[in-house]
Specification:
The chain is an alpha/beta fold. Helices cover 43% and strands 20% of the residues.
């Protein structure tokens, strides 16, 4: 479980007392017209206009002609808050690593035993050398070669063509990279120097889905 009990500390835009009252009215009785809101607060429609503009621009409420103002819950702000508040270090899981000399057959066994889609290839010091995915194994197996004799190093994607993330990057950074590079997972690394990246975790689409699920359940 992730440490997410305090994930929401309120919206980025601080509302004043009047805006909070307007929001409460719309949330309870919306859709409601601007004239009705103004009457409840003993204000003119003109005096209320700037506050309504702040609330609609911020995404707390919306308005439709002949319908009135209604509560939206500031969904976009909440999603943005989730994606930027959490870091890779908050959601990463244990990496499954193998050595370059491991046979393709043994690597496939590891893939299924650990129920992962990608294995990270490291040297004796734990520094990232490459990655090998389920797709790589499938291509090799279809070639009808002896999988016991082929080392993973022959079929893996080597550094520096491997996409990585650090523990300090945000979940939003992860989402962008997974979408941009069209991968299922990313190795989490710590840089000892520009040429040596130590593998300290992995972040996958499952990690992202689990985070959203636990947030929705209030875990």
């Amino acid at each position: 479980m992730y440490a997410i009990s305090n994930w929401w500390e309120g919206p980025k835009i601080k509302l004043n007392a009047r805006q909070k009252k307007i929001l409460a009215i719309v949330k309870e009785d919306g859709p409601i017209s601007g004239e009705e809101i103004a009457a409840r607060l003993n204000l003119s429609r003109a005096a209320l206009r700037p506050d309504l503009a702040v609330l609609t621009t911020s995404g707390y409420i919306d308005a439709r002609p002949r319908v009135g103002y209604f509560y939206t819950g500031n969904v976009l702000t909440a999603v943005s808050e989730i994606l930027t508040r959490f870091t890779v270090g908050d959601i990463k899981s244990r990496p499954i690593v193998i050595r370059e000399q491991t046979s393709v057959y043994d690597a496939i066994v590891s893939l299924f035993l650990d129920d992962v889609g990608t294995l990270y290839v490291v040297d004796e010091n734990g520094f990232l050398q490459g990655v090998v995915s389920r797709k790589d194994f499938l291509k090799t197996a279809l070639g009808q070669t002896d999988l016991h004799k082929i080392p993973v190093g022959v079929i893996m994607t080597r550094m520096p063509q491997v996409y990585t993330v650090t523990e300090e990057e945000t979940v939003l950074d992860v989402v962008r990279k997974i979408c941009e590079y069209e991968v299922d997972s990313l190795p989490v690394v710590r840089a000892h120097d520009p040429n040596n990246l130590k593998v300290v975790g992995r972040v996958t689409k499952t990690n992202l889905a689990r985070l959203l699920l636990e947030l929705s359940e209030g875990s």
